[in-house]
Amino acid sequence: MALVTSTEMFKKAYAGGYAIGAFNVNNMEIVQGITEACKEEKAPVILQVSKGARAYANHTYLVKLVEAAVIECPEIPIVLHLDHGPDFETCKACIDGGFTSVMIDASSKPFAENIEITKKVVEYAHDHGVVVEAELGTLAGIEDDVKVAAHEASYTRPEEVEEFVTKTGCDSLAIAIGTSHGAYKFKPEQCTRNADGILVPPPLRFDVLEEVSRRLPGFPIVLHGASSVPQSFVKIINENGGKMPNAVGVPEDQLRQAAKLSVCKINIDSDLRLAMTGTIREFFNEHPDKFDPREYLKPARANIKELVRHKLRDVLGCAGKA
Ligand code: G3H
Ligand code: 13P
Ligand code: ZN
Fold first, then answer.
1. How far is the CA of 36 from the centre of ligand 3 (A)?
2. Which residue owns the Cα nearest ligand 1 atom 9?
3. Tens digit of pLDDT at every position of the chain (322 positions)
4. 20 to 30 A from 153, CA-CA: which of 276, 294, 300, 301?
């Protein structure tokens, strides 16, 4: 199977009450860990590349790595998506350069300007058979070099979504309902603590999601900042020389709930980073004499694979849907 767009995936996901995992890729081991899990679990997948990933690994290397995954996993549909496209030029470069889906993220711009930029990208993308994700509302956290402070973040205003989607022609919409990027999604003072002293974050704004879905029936919604920050990996990192106090993510049961509603794409990056970093930190601590990168990248890749398998089966619900 060649690279596909997300159109069919989202239709089936919406009807089936599950979501497609959109995992960020930056190097070969991450591509392999994700796609090996998806292949074994027969899950459709979106591999997404940020501006930072293109700067780090080079556009061509990333496209070729994803094309290699397509050859190795012929039985599953794979989308190659630009994550948080900052402007028309970056989106155009990805559309011209083999991507099947792009996100234009003009969510920090005023409403009218967001519409104008998004519309321009949609026209070019659709002329080239590529689909477009847009965003309304602002997530707190870090997206490439744009840092959004929690007090500047705002939930999506449901009363804006129909006009936005109609005027732009976008194919999916990312909304802000309380998730945020990175490993510190909620401040300790926003959380309560459970019996084990683990931080429990405030619930996502399902009321906003439900009102958006009511206004856009059948339309695929996207959740960014959807890592759950597994405390097992935070513990391994902290026990092996790392320092990640109070790292906390979105509870997985809430993501499962969102996937049963109109959320068709769930973005996960930080959890992969935690799995990779925790594995490598532990390896270095246990084997201070080792220096062959293959020896620590192999278990890191294996742990990414197991983490993704868990997401597909237990969080997204997309295992067996390829
Ligand atoms: O939304 C942000 C993603 O986690 C990508 O992160 O910009 O550091 O590649 P990055
Ligand atoms: P996390 O930082 O929660 O993994 O979010 C990733 C993301 O939204 C990529 O666009
Ligand atoms: Zn994001």
1. 23
2. 52
3. 899 999 999 999 999 999 999 999 999 999 999 999 999 999 999 999 999 999 999 999 999 999 999 999 999 999 999 999 999 999 999 999 999 999 999 999 999 999 999 999 999 999 999 999 999 998 866 555 566 666 666 899 999 999 999 999 999 999 999 999 999 999 999 899 999 888 899 999 999 999 999 999 999 999 999 999 999 999 999 999 999 999 999 999 999 999 999 999 999 999 999 999 999 999 999 999 999 999 999 999 999 999 999 999 999 999 999 9
4. 276
pTM: 0.96
Say which DSSP state 6 is in. S
Quote the ligand 1 centre to 290 CA distance (angstroms). Answer: 30
22 backbone dihedrals φ, ψ, rounded to 5°? -115, 110
Pick the CATH number of 7-187+203-228+248-269+304-316 from 3.30.450.20, 3.20.20.10, 2.60.40.1820, 3.20.20.70: 3.20.20.70
Q: Residue with structure tokens 């909304």?
A: 175
The residues lining ligand 2, judged by C-beta closer than 6 Å to any ligand atom, are: 24, 83-84, 181-182, 224-227, 267-271
The number of the ligand 2 atom at minimal distance from the alpha carbon of 183 is: 2
DSSP symbols for 94-163: HHHTT-SEEEE--TTS-HHHHHHHHHHHHHHHHHTT-EEEEEESB-BEEETTEEE-GGG-B---GGGHHH
Catalytic residue, chosen from 83, 171, 269, 271, is 83
Domain ranges within the chain, ordered by starting residue: 7-187+203-228+248-269+304-316
Tokens encoding 162: 């129909």
Rounded to the nearest whole angstrom, what is the distance from the C-alpha of residue 263 to the centroid of ligand 1?
20
> Which ligand sits nearest to residue 269's alpha carbon?
2
In 3D space, the residue among 96, 183, 83 whose CA is nearest the CA of residue 133 turns out to be: 83
